[in-house]
Amino acid sequence: MGLQFRSLSILVLLICFLCWPRVGSPLSNSETKPARALDTTLQEYAYRAFFHPRTGIPFDGLVPPYLTGIEISAMRLRSGSLFHRGVETFKEFKIPIGVREQPYVERLVLVYQNLGNWSTTYYPLPGYTYLAPILGLLAYNGSDLSATNLPELEFWASDDAIAIKFGQIRSKPEGSGSHPKCVWFDLHGQVNFTDLVSDNQCLTYEQGHFSIVVESPPPSPPATPEVSASPEETASSSKLDNMPRVCAIVGIAGGGIILVVLFALLILWAWRYKKRKRIQELERAANSGEALRMTRVGSMRVPYAMATRTMPDLEIDFTA
Ligand SMILES: *[C@@H]1O[C@H](CO)[C@@H](O)[C@H](O)[C@H]1NC(C)=O
Ligand SMILES: *[C@@H]1O[C@H](CO)[C@@H](O)[C@H](O)[C@H]1NC(C)=O
Ligand SMILES: *[C@@H]1O[C@H](CO)[C@@H](O)[C@H](O)[C@H]1NC(C)=O
């Protein structure tokens, strides 16, 4: 019995061990994943805008219906022309001369994103309120315009900075004493804050996603239009948290079921073991009783033996 118990408990421990990493792991890099997946989708849809590709002209793309509210545009450029001439205007961006990319490509495509009302969904920033939509500027290899899943090129301004002139920015929520700041998300999800260079203008030396934010007023429901930002924020964070939570629930439920089954098996096994033990005992007792009676009462052997054999069955039914 001891040996079987030990192997059972080893089995239980093994199952717990196998379940654990699956319950815990999805928590790790879920922060930047949705935004990076969005970049991949928007690259694909922006490239579709090139019907008759001409260099240096912005082509507005269409997003899939489930992303309505996001604007995209794409511009194809020769690498040399970008470096020597820059781009006077590409939506809100002004790209100076001296911009380089790595690895070198002959032609590149700049993809512009305006995340509109999806800004807080993909770039939640607790403690801050967005005064402008998130704008993205990313660079890709422009040799093959049907390519999907392209990695971004490294892309930086080596001389003057790239200027981002946001249009009309929202007024800051009542109760927020801080000054607006430029926010920059790089492709790894790193956030940096810099000062504005004018009322609605930010500078950057690298690609990524940009906006203007202000610190949110201390928690007391503000009565300004910025209220709309908070439900989006909570919705997005719960969306991000959902994955690990679902995994944990599934893991716990699965583990619970396994434990219940194992426990039931254990009870069944113990009951059978007890039953077998008891039968053996009773048989042994019956056999010796039979033998005694046989010697004692010669002709009455058969009925006595039958009576003792039915007894154990009755007892087992009661104890089980
Ligand atoms: C953004 O607005 C569009 C309609 O203009 C809507 O379909 C979409 O659901 C909105 N997105 C969010 C995250 O609210
Ligand atoms: C750019 O794409 C072209 C065509 O797919 C490919 O031949 C070239 O190697 C790519 N360049 C880089 C740096 O990935
Ligand atoms: C961004 O911020 C981090 C710290 O938060 C800092 O180490 C890094 O140098 C900053 N990068 C730039 C380009 O300002």
From TrEMBL:
InterPro entries: DUF1191. GO terms for cellular component: membrane. Keywords: Membrane, Signal, Transmembrane, Transmembrane helix. Residues 1-26 form the signal peptide. Residues 214-238 are annotated as: Disordered. The chain crosses the membrane at residues 248-271. The keyword Membrane applies. This is Legume lectin domain-containing protein.
